[in-house]
Here is the input.
Amino acid sequence: MARITAGVATSHVPLLGVAVDQGKTGDAYFKPIFDGYEWTKRWEAEQKPDVIVLVYNDHASAFDMKIIPTFAIGCGERYKPADEGWGPRPVPEVIGHPDLAWHIAQSLILDDFDMTIINEMDVDHGLTVPLSMMFGTPAAWPVKIIPIAVNVVTYPVPSGNRCWLLGEAIRRAVQSFPEDLNVQVWGTGGMSHQLQGPRAGLINAEWDNSFLDGMIGESDALRNIPHIEYLRETGSEGIEMVMWLIMRGALGRKTRCLHRHYHVPCSNTAIGHLVLEPAE
Here is the structure.
């Protein structure tokens, strides 16, 4: 059967995509950020996952105010990089895994999650930047991707507990797929940042690192953090961290940390990165 072997969490700051695309990853400003991903690059090359279930949020590329799905799953064969206003990133097309994606979609819907099924969409920096951080600049991505888009842009957004439960349901879905596949689940976005208003530039390193601590081990306290705490402590865009909880829920009762990285600043954002494995 298919199995979830690891979880990866990472920020998806668009500036990092610019640094990759323009060959600036070794510049003084960016090097400390990218150095924290070198371990993961080597590890991913060794692990060779077959499929990544990649949880991210769309930034008005595939969706807009006309349609705002809370949870959407991509079941298509391929996804092009989105034009976010300055042309698509010069990165490979993302190749899907329709068989597993449709299996997960059916399993989740029968598990009482009302998923929106997407067969065609472009994917923006929320999905492509994490791939660049982990795989560099290959001619083709070395793994197939199942996108799961979460609304963390327009309130109401899903609760941390609902995201954790979705992760648990994804785990059940993957484990019921008969093909022998090495599957990873990635949660992206965050960490603390606010992009507008009088608190623009807010970074809360203490809260961020407490959140990283909570992802490791067997506590499930993070699932109960209310929306108002994310807003108060991590800024308006810090709510993206609920997407990490989907990954955490998919790993089971207990996790072990393989790699951890935290750095500020990147643009006006805190960079966080974890590699976890199930510890059961």
Remarks:
- Strands lie at 3-10, 51-56, 71-74, 78-79, 94-95, 116-118, 144-150, 182-188, 255-266, 269-278.
- The two ends are 17 Å apart (CA to CA).
- The chain has one domain: 3-271.
